[in-house]
Amino acid sequence: MCDVKNEEKNVAGLKTIPVCDAIGMVLAHDITEIRKDEFKGRAFKKGHVVKEDDIEHLLRLGKENLYVLELGSDEIHENDAAYSLAEALMGEGVRMKGEPKEGKINIVADRDGLFKINRMALFEFNMLGDVMCATMHNNSLVKKGQVVAGTRAIPMVVKAAVVDEAVRVARRFKGIIPPHPPLLKGGWGDYEWTGIIEVKELRKARAGVVITGNEVYHGRIKDAFGPVIKKKIEAFGGEIVGLYYAPDDESFIEERLKELIDAGADLLITTGGMSVDPDDVTRFAIKKLGAIDITYGSAVLPGAMFLVAYLETRDERQETRNKKGIDNDSSLIPILGIPACGMYNKITVFDLILPRILAGEKIGRKELAELGHGGLCLTCEECRYPLCPFGKGA
Hints:
About 25% of the residues lie in helices and about 25% in strands. By secondary structure, the protein is an alpha+beta fold. The chain is elongated and about 90 Å long. A six-stranded mixed β-sheet has the order 16-15-17-20-19-18, with helices on both faces. Strands 7-8-12-10 form a four-stranded antiparallel β-sheet. Strands 1-2-5 form a three-stranded antiparallel β-sheet, with no helix packed on it.
């Protein structure tokens, strides 16, 4: 049965010996078995002591030689390296799934939420060589237990210096704004990372909605916007605290927005009135309300005339909210202005931005400009979003 006569040799910290001479020795790595249409998995686990009965099985798997681990002081086994890499990569809302296997370990979401990946840091990590990490797209909605990333040491034995550098790169971004700014001036904004890989929890919005347009306000046409907004807010566990119809009148729209704030809205949504027609005054009403950081226009189709702004609640208004028992942990209320496309297109820029707002991310010109790469909806006959390229480039 055993006529293998290969000579012993050393490779990268491993001693290679003929399988028939391995009885009593400890395997340095997992050995995989594949049986077509039947089984693919681990036949022998790292650390297994080879027995005489194992020899025939190993030969059937095509293993004429085995590795016996002989690590130097400057080397790390692939499984130990994978564990260290995953631990360094992980931020809030994620966890490892099981233990490393053949130098690889998966990272899964530990809660429902928005997946965030620090792409610049990931690139630096993967440039090191001998280690890698592959992830889902940034800003993907994920469910608890879903695999969001996988990392591994590529060789069976990796230099400790490489692992140490990879860990250093990953940990450098925890709790701080990354030191290497992207191409555009303005850097990374106010976002602080808990790790290269995160899942942010989404808050349940209390949304106030103002549907603008003389045609709807005067009953000339039936409102089609309200049901769309309600469905999308409730999909994230939120609620509509108030919905008003308004004519194309700045002061009227402004007053309705104020009433929604007093009713406890922590997210304001306006629909329509975002184009350049003389009657389209919604964005002017938002400015008159006292909104700050107003950004009009996005690099997304559909949704180019989208608006994002923020309103600081004044002391007297916050006092009114407090008296009503409204729990509000932020004095900044986001305002989203949705153009007409949000009524008849199934997926628009609103669907890309809403989860990020609910995750607590501040959206401005930079974030809306980044959406241009991948921001073209292909208007497929059968919409399969989010299983499509739309919004995946940013």
